[in-house]
Amino acid sequence: MPPLPTPDPAALRHSAQTAARIVAEIESAGGWIPFSRFMELALYAPGLGYYSAGLGKFGEAGDFVTAPEISALFGRTLARQAAQVLAETGGDILEMGAGSGRLAFDLLAELAQSGQPLPRYFILEVSADLRRRQQELLQPYAPRVQWLDTLPAGFTGLILGNEVLDAMPVELVAWREGGIRQRGVVLNQGEFQWSERELATGELFDLAARLEMPADSVSEIGLAARGFIAALAAMLEKGVILMLDYGFGRSEYYHPQRRTGTLMCHYRHHAHDDPFYLPGLQDITAHVDFTAIAETGIERGLDLLGYTSQAHFLLNCGITDLLAQTPPEQASAYLPLAAQAQKLLSPAEMGELFKAVALGKGMDMPLIGFGRGDKSRML
């Protein structure tokens, strides 16, 4: 692993507390926990996990940069898709895991500029620290924005999630000569260490057994993401679930050439593959199996409304029209926007790896974001 920035003493103390919480979990479980539980605690343990504690995460001073942080063009473009869904359903917007609040701010600003009445904008946020930051940023829209602690019993409108699925705990599975095994975490002389257990029954085994993986492969299966989509499907009365994230269809995800999986960690804009490094201080993610997301939605009575690259989605929604509102002659304003659009659209940046998938109920019209570049055949 390449050298990483050294945390300050306070951050090291925080990481030690997070590690102690995980150690206690391992000991109470008899010495072994599945990796999904390790990942859940490292990211979401109350007051300690990466997303639960008050640590800088987004932007240049954080650990990674998301599309809304790159450019307001992202949220403004999504507003066009939101406007279509709202016009069809007469509903509201529910954003899952709103991060810094930047996407909500830019989306609402664009809707306000269009002159139409603003919808109610609900945010479900598990991090108390991020909720405070969102409330500060979204103060201009305070009358329309509400924060939720749990999913509502029913919902009509647009359910939106940007880089939400990749942060959900994943199961790690190893395909060995002797069979399928589940990867977990143990303690060895005070250090976290991998340990595998035989997997022979249950949902995880059934899903892993369907995948044709060569021996000595390791990859992820996102049971939590499946459960999340199932919960959204049960709640949705009419409208669209729109998820944007990085990932692949199943044939690409579990390709023999990707035999070490996609698990990745992010710390101060450095990417590496050691999830045991400084628990509580770094992000841990896995790419999204969009086939699993689509299958789960369809199994729960939703329609697959579209699957495409982020670049095609943004182009279909008119990002170039928004960029053109700034005259190229105004170089000081136009050139930064053009560079931001390039990051969002370029195949070498976010344009191709990031995808958009839409699932819906009661929608009788094609979504504007999926008019060209459909990739549903790759699911």
Could you list some keywords that capture this structure?
36% helix, 8-stranded mixed beta sheet, Rossmann fold, alpha/beta, globular, 5-stranded antiparallel beta sheet, 379 residues
Q: Could you explain the architecture of this structure?
A:
This protein has 379 residues and is an alpha/beta fold. The protein has a single domain, classed as 3-Layer(aba) Sandwich (Rossmann fold), CATH 3.40.50. Helix content is 36%, strand content 24%. It contains 13 helices and 16 strands. Strands 2, 3, 4, 5, 10, 14, 15 and 16 form an eight-stranded mixed β-sheet that branches. Strand 11 and strand 12 (270-272) form a beta hairpin. The longest helix has 20 residues, at 9-28.
